[in-house]
Design goal:
382 residues; alpha+beta; Glucose Permease (Domain IIA); Muramoyl-pentapeptide Carboxypeptidase, domain 1; 7-stranded antiparallel sheet; 9 helices; 11% strand
Length: 382
C-alpha cells in the first residue's frame, strides 16, 4: 500500500471515527454508534417472538445496515401508506412518547411522532415517523399516536398504538415505519428475521458475505493501455468480473466496455477517492490490485456477528489477523488463534483510532478497520 493510499485511508478513517465518537449515546437516538453486549453483537439477527408492527399493506427489505446520513441505520423501514395502523410488537409498557418519559405524557405537540415500549423481557421496541399530518395532506398538523396511548400505559401485543406517516426526517421521503429492536442490555439488534417469522415466513438465510471470485486478473493488470468505453477483450472481461465480485452494478460480463461498465467504474472510482472519469488506467488498476488482495479476508470477517476476543479461534480470527497486518498492526502469524500478539495488535489499532481500547473486535472496531483499509462504501457481501 503506497504512502499516498495510506494517507487517504487515515483521512477517511478520521472522518468515520469522528462520527462514532461524537454521536450522542442516548437510547433510541437514530444512527447511534455500534456497541456490542455480552450476549448479542450489534446488528445480530435475533429470534424474538413478536407481532408484525404494521397492520395493513406494506413492503420492506433488510435495511438494518443501510448508511443514512453518514450513520448506520440500525432499524427496519416498513414502507406503507399514511394512516396504515401501527401495532405493538409485543406486550409491555410505553416508556417514551415524542421525547417524553413522564408518566401520563404524550409529549409536546410539536414533537409528534415517536414512541418506545419496554417489553416484559426487558427488550425495547421503537416506532418512528408516525403520522403528523391531517389525513389527505402533508401539513404537519396531525397526530400519529392512537387515542389513550400515554407514557406508563400497559399495551398488549398487536394493540393499536399509532399510524404510519412521514414525520421527522422522513418528511422529504416516502411514508414508512422505522422499527428498532433493542436487547435488555440496550444493544441494537436486527429484527428482520423476527419480522419474517411474525409474518409466517421462514427466516432469511444468513448472508455468507463471501465475495465472488474475480478469477485471473492478469489480463487487466498487464493491459498496455487504459481501458475505456468501447474497448473489448479479455482485459475488459477481467475488469467486469472484478466489479461483479465487489457487488458493483456492472451488468453483463461480456467483455464489452459499454455504458453500464463505465458507470460501474465511475462508482468504484468515487468510492475509492480516485479521479472519476470512467477510464481504467494505472491508478485504477493499482486500486483494484490493492483491494482484490484483501477482499476475501474483509468479506469473511464481515460475515461474523460474534465479538472476537482473546482465546477465540477460527477462520474469522485468521481473517482479522490478515487485515491487522495490512493495517500496520502486526499480530504475528495469521494462525486463527486470538493470542497475546493479536490482542496487542487490536489494542494498538484501537488506540491509534481513538476507539474504546478493550482488545476485543466488535462491530465498531470491524467498521473502523474497514474504513481505514479503504473498503467503506464497497459492497463486500456478494
Amino acid at each position: 500500500m503506497t504512502s499516498q493510499m495510506t494517507g487517504r485511508r487515515i483521512a477517511s478513517a478520521a472522518v468515520a471515527i469522528a462520527l462514532f465518537t461524537t454521536t450522542a449515546p442516548a437510547a433510541f437516538a437514530n444512527h447511534q454508534a455500534p456497541r456490542d453486549g455480552t450476549r448479542h453483537a450489534y446488528g445480530a439477527m435475533v429470534a424474538w417472538p413478536m407481532t408484525f408492527p404494521v397492520a395493513g399493506k406494506y413492503n420492506y427489505s433488510d435495511s438494518f445496515w443501510a448508511n443514512r446520513g453518514g450513520g448506520l441505520h440500525h432499524a427496519q423501514d416498513v414502507m406503507a401508506a399514511k394512516m396504515v395502523p401501527v401495532v405493538a410488537a409485543n406486550a409491555g409498557t410505553i416508556i417514551r412518547i415524542n421525547g417524553s418519559s413522564v408518566a401520563g405524557s404524550t409529549g409536546a405537540s410539536n414533537r409528534c411522532c415517536t414512541l418506545a415500549i419496554r417489553h416484559d423481557d426487558g427488550w425495547d421496541s421503537v416506532y418512528i415517523h408516525l403520522n403528523n399530518d391531517t389525513p389527505g395532506t402533508d401539513d404537519g398538523q396531525g397526530w400519529g399516536i392512537a387515542p389513550g396511548i400515554a407514557v406508563g400505559q400497559r399495551v398488549n401485543a398487536g394493540q393499536h398504538i399509532g399510524w404510519v406517516g412521514d414525520s421527522g426526517n422522513a418528511e422529504s421521503g416516502s411514508p414508512h415505519l422505522h422499527f428498532e429492536l433493542w436487547t435488555d442490555e440496550k444493544i441494537a439488534v436486527n429484527p428482520f428475521n423476527a419480522m419474517r417469522t411474525a409474518e409466517g415466513r421462514a427466516p432469511a438465510a444468513a448472508a455468507s458475505c463471501s465475495v465472488a471470485s474475480a478469477g485471473d486478473l492478469s489480463s487487466l493488470f498487464n493491459a498496455s493501455s487504459s481501458l475505456r468505453e468501447g474497448a473489448r477483450g479479455e482485459a475488459v472481461l477481467a475488469l467486469q468480473r472484478f466489479l461483479k465480485a465487489i457487488g458493483a452494478p456492472v451488468g453483463s460480463v461480456d467483455g464489452v466496455y459499454g455504458p453500464v461498465t463505465a458507470s460501474a467504474v465511475r462508482h468504484f472510482q468515487t468510492v475509492r477517492g480516485l479521479i472519476v472519469d470512467g477510464i481504467v488506467g494505472s491508478q485504477s488498476r493499482s486500486e483494484i490490485s490493492a483491494l482484490n488482495s484483501i477482499l476475501p479476508a474483509t468479506s469473511a470477517l464481515a460475515a461474523t456477528s460474534r465479538t472476537l476476543r482473546p482465546g477465540d479461534r477460527g477462520a474469522d480470527v485468521k481473517n482479522l489477523q490478515q487485515l491487522l497486518h495490512v493495517a500496520g498492526n502486526s499480530p504475528g502469524t495469521a494462525d486463527g488463534v486470538y493470542g497475546p500478539m493479536t490482542e496487542a495488535a487490536v489494542r494498538g489499532f484501537q488506540t491509534a483510532r481513538s476507539l474504546i481500547v478493550d482488545g476485543k473486535v466488535g462491530a465498531q472496531t470491524r467498521s473502523a478497520l474497514s474504513v481505514f483499509l479503504g473498503l467503506d462504501g464497497i459492497k463486500v457481501c456478494a
